[in-house]
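3.2 Worked example (two chains)
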Amino acid sequence: HVAPMTGPQAHLGKDNENGARLAVEELNAAGLEIGGAQVKFELVPEDDQADPKQGTIVAQKLVDAKVHGVIGHLNSGTTIPASKLYSDAGIPQISGSATNPKYTQQGFKTAFRVMANDVQQGKALGEFAAKQGVKTVAIIDDRTAYGQGLADEFRKAAEASGIKVVATEYTNDKATDFKAILTKIKSTKTDLVFFGGMDAQGGPMAKQMKELGIKAKFLGGDGVCTPEFMKLGGPASEGNFCSLPGMPLEKLAKGPEFKDKFQKKFNGEIQLYAPYVYDAVMVMVDSMKRANSVEPAKYLAEVGKSNYDGVTAKIAFDEFGDLKGGAISVYRYKGGQLEYVETLGGGMAEAVKEAAQAT
């Protein structure tokens, strides 16, 4: 399992790792037999610091260690370069959080994801903004594969819905001061600020918008749909919107049980991707069971044929390794909680295929 375990996204990395750890412990407690022998799973955790270079160093380390499968990475910016190394080694890789379309469009038979991608998410968010009566938007992204990818897809959908983009600004995934770009945006009197990036930047950004007297609403994707965003944004979070792939846990058959189990085990709430990472481990092991082998070369073909009833969704993959029919849910930050607003899409597979063909 690979995620940033140090730096500003460490809270998300730990959340991912806990999702994987919970799955591994449950599988070991079940005493599985695969290929006529009892199997014990071991979680090998690595820290890629959300840095693409470190991501490939860690990937090579796991390839050299001859691991049987990789869950991760967390960020698209680390997942994409690392995926080439896993592909060359024939090691199946399932990410529970990397949403940039490029990850599964490289033609690697080893690359899978268990959540909707940014084509689906950007499209849903653009349409949601139009439905809210938004006429103008300023777009900020953090220049990572995730942030830039999501912002680009949002822009396409917003413009197609008749929304005018009045400003485009950039930051990075280490920044904490956004006053300069927000001051420029303030002069546009925009209805909405859309941010492509993570909560470590999004929270302070929402706070600084309020301090500067910017009246615009804030909207972001899954990277800012977290308790940490609300902690960092404080009262400025209130009434703004974000999105998450899939349906809310409480509306899913296995969701409440998972949430309860996770909170008891780790003595804290789910930050973001833990349920998806848990499902990613379970899908990988389910493929091993069906192949009756833990060897990557033998079980890889089964991953693509998955039809697994997970916590987050019924998981089946299309020919790219993308989740079929990924829905997107919109949430409002309210009183320190994420309040469910609505679910969009679910039938966006065609949009994904069109984007892949265009690529």
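3.2.1 Second chain
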Amino acid sequence: MKRLYQLILLFFICSTVHNRALANQPAVHRDTPFLQDYSVKYYTNASDPLLKVAADRNGNIQVLSASGLLKPFDGEFLYPGTLVPDVSYRPMAGKKVTDLCSCNEQFVFLDNKAVFSNAWAGKLFARHSLDQARLFACATDFTFLVSDGHRLVCLNDSKVLGESNSSDEIIQMRYSVNKALFWILGKKTLSVYSVKEQKLTRIYDGKDFTSFDFFDQGKKVIIGTTNGYLVLDTQSQKILGELNTKLPCPEITCVKEIDNEIWFGSNFGAFMLRRDGKFNYYNGERWLPGNKVTDIAKGPDHSVLVLTEKGLGQIFFKAMTLEDKALYFETQVRQRHIRN
């Protein structure tokens, strides 16, 4: 019995020493992945305005400038690239492209003769009758609405389905799948064009509009102005709440919904509205080649394309651990900074 007590006492002493040793050990950090945002910048030396940016299903990026189509070249994180002329399709050289969009994840173009594309074996070529055409929007069935700023032509496969005129200067058009309507933003009005009825209907009057897009699965429209933004319900066609001016920069130049996130472009950078009502603000040369944003689009590889007057900023969102981040910088240092 005495021996048994001795064994129990010995076990208790050893257990206490072991627990104290564990308690004195430093805590081990678990290197879990987090979402890291970083930017790759592409500058331009040309003085021509940069108008639109888009990406296709193959990961190609095209930028529409006043002098033609450009594409990014040779850019990496902390190593800026450039925008160079896109000569992928030689027959495009003589065309005066006035608008660009991504339709069904393929590039579609507008010039003074037609809506056309190099995708789908080049079969898409819908002629229109507007010599000064500069805007268009695409429906899922390849019905297009083309405008020169006031006149509107709805067409499918070169067949004109209807025409209309807007008293307001048109600055942007988008297609809503939910109601089969083209939504048309003017400088002072928001209107809808019915494909079925071939009718233009004004639904809201305001002032100083600059851009708009759908969000909340097409149930709402967000309208950017020169002093904040408005939210409109697509069902009731009424404004929800008041003008929101509490922004990093209230002078909005473009609005885009990307992966259920609302992005704003302004004269002082771009910002994304978070779920908590705050903003992720991307400003300065850490993120963008210039601060005056002209267009925003969804990019390849979980990125957002922010076009400015001085070039293109491609903001990536990548899941990585601290070790991954450290190894990235170590690799870059070895490739670019080790000498002799």
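3.3 Remarks
The helical segments are 2-24, 322-336.
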